[in-house]
């Protein structure tokens, strides 16, 4: 029996995980991964917490992900509490891939959860930051094209958060941001965007399930920039799936991991060239 690799997506509040990484969650599940949403608070400052948890559960069912809760106080999450919850969940699940809020964010809970995850997961090799409505100066190093059926399923899952759809207009945000991140290469589609903190190359070399048809493109890698704590592609790199959206388990999709491998190989090639000419 094939053991599923696990992707852990961490959000401070109900609906954060689907906003930032709902599309890639769908793609990972279709590629044979087990995806877990870890929602750190019950979202009581944004509505009735019982309702918000119920909405998050329905959202998770729609996507096909598992959801767990930290039950920390909304608006008053502390680093000590967050790290404790995160370390417990990381030990329990041992995820191969982790997604979390980008650290530059106007919401205090988002910033604390992001920094706490970086501390709790300091020994984990693959972490990506995702974008949200309150992200500040988000400069993605990669984007993932969402085919129409993936985009529609993400929209359907987000609509489960009915208490938030009019209060913060989240469905409008994912449409507007998705189209902005898709421009100019995928003008008729939407994308999700990410910034990698670090990535284990070995994760890309051992796929969970066989791939019947896999096609991806990296249209441009203009230059590489070395940050303080991470290696980033300074220009957006596009991953395009070159077939219709899958409708059965036979059509496993691993273009996300293939794209990450392309990014890594591009970095190694460019850095090697730099060392030779330096």
Automatic annotation (TrEMBL):
InterPro entries: GlcNAc_PI_deacetylase-related, LmbE-like_dom_sf. GO terms for molecular function: N-acetylglucosaminylphosphatidylinositol deacetylase activity. It comes from the Eukaryota. Belongs to the PIGL family. SUPFAM superfamilies: LmbE-like. This is N-acetylglucosaminylphosphatidylinositol deacetylase. The chain crosses the membrane at residues 253-274. Its EC number is 3.5.1.89. Keywords: Membrane, Transmembrane, Transmembrane helix. The lineage of its organism: Eukaryota, Fungi, Dikarya, Ascomycota, Pezizomycotina.
């Amino acid at each position: 029996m094939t053991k599923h690799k696990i992707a852990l997506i961490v959000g401070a509040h109900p609906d954060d995980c689907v906003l930032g990484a709902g599309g890639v969650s769908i793609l990972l599940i279709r590629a044979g991964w087990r995806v877990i949403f870890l929602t750190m608070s019950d979202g009581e400052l944004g509505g009735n917490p019982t309702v918000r948890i119920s909405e998050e559960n329905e959202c998770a069912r729609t996507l096909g992900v598992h959801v767990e809760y930290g039950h920390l106080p909304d608006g008053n999450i502390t680093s000590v509490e967050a790290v404790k919850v995160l370390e417990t969940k990381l030990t329990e699940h041992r995820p191969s891939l982790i997604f979390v809020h980008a650290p530059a964010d106007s919401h205090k809970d988002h910033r604390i959860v992001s920094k706490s995850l970086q501390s709790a997961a300091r020994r984990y090799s693959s972490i990506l930051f995702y974008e949200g409505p309150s992200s500040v100066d988000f400069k993605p190093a990669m984007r993932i094209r969402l085919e129409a059926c993936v985009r529609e399923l993400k929209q359907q899952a987000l609509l489960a958060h009915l208490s938030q759809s009019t209060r913060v207009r989240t469905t409008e945000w994912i449409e507007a941001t998705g189209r902005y991140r898709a421009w100019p290469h995928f003008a008729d589609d939407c994308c999700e965007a990410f910034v990698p903190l670090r990535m284990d190359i070995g994760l890309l070399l051992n796929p969970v399930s066989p791939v019947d048809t896999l096609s991806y493109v990296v249209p441009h890698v203009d230059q590489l920039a070395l940050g303080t704590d991470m290696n980033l592609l300074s220009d957006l790199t596009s991953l395009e799936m070159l077939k219709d959206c899958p409708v059965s388990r036979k059509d496993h999709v691993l273009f996300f991991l293939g794209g990450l491998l392309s990014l890594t190989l591009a970095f190694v090639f460019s850095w090697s060239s730099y060392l030779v000419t330096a």
